């Protein structure tokens, strides 16, 4: 629901709040108390209910997503601390654009009581107030608690403006003065649906559109703002303007600088900095601020001006007498999505794949993984098996050479021949951090990597164990149990790769205390973790099922009875007496 505006100056008839009696407004609008008179001129609720009923068709036909809330707030206004609360200008504009033609077709006009201009000054005042609110955004008064918490967001490392710089205005260190703000900007984004891959997992990204509303708590995502928006404002046709988009939370970088916009013909701008999507890869919703300035005339973009507008945008605008304002301010709240995580990850800016894997892990629980686990590291497991051919239940199978990384987010299912014991995977470790810190390890950092199958019995089966991994290099660790590929005896098993941070070196000889006589069976993982003071930092997993390669192992390497192992398999035992073609697996 959009944040709305409390109006202090209003004709007072009702001295106190009263319960809403209109059935249309009793649910789904976020409030249950009203006060009169209203904007439509009704002094009492009874008349307002009749007036609202006369345009009920707009609500019934859902001509705008917010039409019911908007009309309720006009006719049956919310009562807050004895004062009415008006809808914002943005809410009115959205309702008008979706519904005014329908209203005309019903023989009615968009009445004065619904005219969006009456909300404009109140909205401007509220935007200016909120831009100075030091509790509104992540870098506000609660930032110390946020950034000192365990597994703190990586946004904290980009909080270069600390201390008193706790509001949008304060973030720009005296270079942003909103006293001249006298108009609103209408900013609209449209985005298409597409398929992308992020952190080895395919995602279907949605399509849609939205209008920026700085008073709304709504949070958007980089995918939704990757295209240049359409922007309009009230303008003198002969006046030149400059429009900028800057990051208020993490560094103040410019995401667009457009000069010499004549009137509000935004499409015909000169770009000092081309528009680029606000790529917030972190878990906090960060404000990206649009600022509109008047120019004293057409500007020639010299080298020094371009450099200043690019490197320290708001300060340059504040210091240069050719710019007046800002005349309008707005912002959009952006937080991470798979698009921003893969975009910046592929460019070695930041690694935040662990946040997506953590989310997936919460939907893939195991008894030895704490339910509140937040992962701080990526465990990227890549297999490059060579080609192999084998006979299983009298059929010949040929597996081609391939290379692939497992996808824990998508619960990837792998063929056991592709992850067999001879196909030892490579494991790359990186931290949830900005580069280069994401791949930097201290000399005294040690890790343990294990691969376990919790579906093997009452206690997990230990497929792989590497201790005392230094500097994030798994190959330099001590391999206590060599890699052994999955071979589930039946059904589908999940195989976890778990990375733990050590507090000290671990003596490899102690591992026998946590398994049975078979050295891998019944691994007491919880005891091992607890006794050695290990902290889970990263995880990955894959699924594998009982398949032809497992049956091949049972018969050819474990000397189990072929008839028993292959019972029920398609074509068996007829395939043993005929000349069959081979089965090729990619």
Automatic annotation (TrEMBL):
<dbReference type="GO" id="GO:0042813">
    <property type="term" value="F:Wnt receptor activity"/>
</dbReference>
<keyword id="KW-0732">Signal</keyword>
<dbReference type="InterPro" id="IPR020067">
    <property type="entry name" value="Frizzled_dom"/>
</dbReference>
<keyword id="KW-0217">Developmental protein</keyword>
<feature type="signal peptide">
    <location>
        <begin position="1"/>
        <end position="19"/>
    </location>
</feature>
<dbReference type="InterPro" id="IPR008914">
    <property type="entry name" value="PEBP"/>
</dbReference>
<keyword id="KW-1015">Disulfide bond</keyword>
<dbReference type="GO" id="GO:0060070">
    <property type="term" value="P:canonical Wnt signaling pathway"/>
</dbReference>
<feature type="domain" description="FZ">
    <location>
        <begin position="17"/>
        <end position="150"/>
    </location>
</feature>
<dbReference type="Pfam" id="PF01392">
    <property type="entry name" value="Fz"/>
</dbReference>
<dbReference type="GO" id="GO:0005886">
    <property type="term" value="C:plasma membrane"/>
</dbReference>
<dbReference type="Pfam" id="PF01161">
    <property type="entry name" value="PBP"/>
</dbReference>
<dbReference type="InterPro" id="IPR036610">
    <property type="entry name" value="PEBP-like_sf"/>
</dbReference>
<dbReference type="GO" id="GO:0017147">
    <property type="term" value="F:Wnt-protein binding"/>
</dbReference>
<feature type="disulfide bond">
    <location>
        <begin position="92"/>
        <end position="116"/>
    </location>
</feature>
<protein>
    <recommendedName>
        <fullName>FZ domain-containing protein</fullName>
    </recommendedName>
</protein>
<dbReference type="InterPro" id="IPR036790">
    <property type="entry name" value="Frizzled_dom_sf"/>
</dbReference>
<dbReference type="GO" id="GO:0035567">
    <property type="term" value="P:non-canonical Wnt signaling pathway"/>
</dbReference>
<dbReference type="InterPro" id="IPR035810">
    <property type="entry name" value="PEBP_euk"/>
</dbReference>
<dbReference type="InterPro" id="IPR015526">
    <property type="entry name" value="Frizzled/SFRP"/>
</dbReference>
């Amino acid at each position: 629901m959009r944040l709305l505006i409390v109006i202090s100056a209003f004709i007072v008839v009702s001295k106190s709040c009263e319960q809403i009696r209109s059935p249309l407004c009793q649910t789904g609008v976020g409030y249950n108390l009203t006060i009169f008179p209203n904007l439509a001129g009704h002094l009492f609720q009874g008349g307002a209910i009749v007036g609202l009923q006369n345009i009920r068709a707009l609500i019934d036909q859902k001509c705008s997503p917010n039409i019911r809330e908007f009309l309720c707030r006009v006719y049956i206004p919310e009562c807050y601390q004895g004062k009415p609360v008006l809808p914002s200008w943005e809410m009115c504009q959205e309702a008008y654009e979706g519904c005014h033609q329908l209203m005309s077709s019903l023989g009615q006009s968009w009445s004065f009581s619904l005219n969006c201009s009456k909300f404009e000054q109140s909205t401007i005042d509220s935007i200016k107030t909120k831009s100075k609110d030091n509790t509104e955004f992540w870098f506000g008064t609660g930032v110390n608690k946020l950034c000192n918490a365990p597994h703190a967001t990586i946004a904290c490392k980009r909080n270069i403006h600390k201390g008193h710089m706790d509001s949008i205005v304060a973030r720009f260190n005296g270079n942003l003065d909103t006293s001249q703000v006298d108009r609103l900007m209408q900013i609209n984004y449209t985005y298409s649906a597409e398929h992308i891959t992020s952190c080895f997992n395919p995602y279907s990204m949605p399509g849609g559109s939205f209008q920026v509303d700085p008073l709304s708590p709504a949070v958007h995502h980089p995918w939704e703002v990757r295209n240049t928006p359409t922007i309009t404002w009230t303008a003198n046709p002969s006046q030149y303007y400059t429009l900028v988009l800057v990051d208020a939370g993490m560094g103040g970088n410019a995401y667009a600088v457009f000069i010499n916009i004549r009137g509000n013909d935004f499409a015909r701008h000169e770009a000092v900095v081309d528009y680029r999507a606000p790529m917030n890869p972190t878990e906090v919703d960060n404000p990206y601020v649009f600022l509109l300035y008047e120019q004293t005339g057409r500007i020639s973009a010299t080298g020094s001006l371009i450099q200043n507008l690019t490197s320290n945008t708001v300060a340059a605008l504040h210091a240069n007498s050719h710019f007046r304002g800002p005349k309008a301010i707005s912002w959009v709240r952006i937080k991470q999505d798979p698009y921003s995580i893969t975009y910046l990850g592929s460019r070695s800016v930041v690694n935040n794949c662990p946040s997506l894997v953590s989310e997936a892990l919460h939907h893939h629980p195991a008894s030895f993984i704490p339910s509140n686990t937040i992962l701080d590291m990526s465990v990227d497991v890549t297999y490059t098996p060579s080609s192999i051919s084998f006979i299983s239940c009298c059929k010949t199978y040929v597996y081609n050479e391939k290379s692939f990384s497992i996808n824990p987010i998508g619960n990837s299912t792998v063929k056991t021949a592709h992850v067999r014991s001879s196909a030892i995977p490579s494991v790359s470790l990186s931290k949830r951090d900005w580069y280069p810190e994401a791949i930097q390890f201290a000399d005294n950092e040690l890790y343990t990597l294990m691969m376990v199958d919790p579906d093997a019995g009452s206690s997990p089966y230990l497929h792989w164990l590497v201790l005392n991994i230094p500097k994030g290099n798994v190959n330099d660790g001590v391999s206590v149990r060599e890699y052994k590929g999955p071979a589930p005896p039946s059904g589908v098993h999940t195989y976890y790769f778990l990375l733990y941070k050590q507090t000290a070196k671990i003596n490899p000889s102690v591992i026998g205390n946590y398994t049975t006589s078979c050295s891998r069976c019944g691994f007491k993982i919880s005891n091992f973790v607890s006794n050695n003071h290990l902290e889970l930092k990263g995880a990955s997993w894959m699924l594998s099922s009982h398949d032809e390669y497992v049956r091949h192992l049972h018969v050819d390497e474990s000397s189990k009875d072929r008839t028993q192992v292959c019972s029920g398999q398609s074509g068996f035992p007829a395939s043993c007496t005929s000349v069959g073609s081979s089965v090729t697996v990619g």
